[in-house]
Amino acid sequence: MCDEETRRLVGKFLDIPVLKENQEKYRDEREKVNMCTAIRDMVKSGEKRGEERSARLALLLAERNRIGDLKKASEDKEYRDKLFQEFGI
Fold this sequence. Notes:
By secondary structure, the chain is mainly alpha-helical. It has one domain (4-87). Helix content is 73%, strand content 0%. The protein has helices at residues 4-14, 17-21, 35-63, 67-75, 77-87. The protein is elongated. The two termini are 37 Å apart. The relative contact order is 0.10. The model has no long low-confidence stretch (mean pLDDT 84).
């Protein structure tokens, strides 16, 4: 567990919006911030954003009948990143 000053410094150092915006959500029964819970929530949130981003790319490629690009994007990270840029995702 972290004291308030440690939480503030870690939050500032890592610039974690979830800690800034939801401080009360991550407080335990002793009013200490539970960093493990906050980090776990951030990971879940990041995974969800990544899934949504990939699903959006897949939909756009399918709508344009770019099935070859869809297959290549699923196998090649650099190509997938290029397509994310192309579609502004």
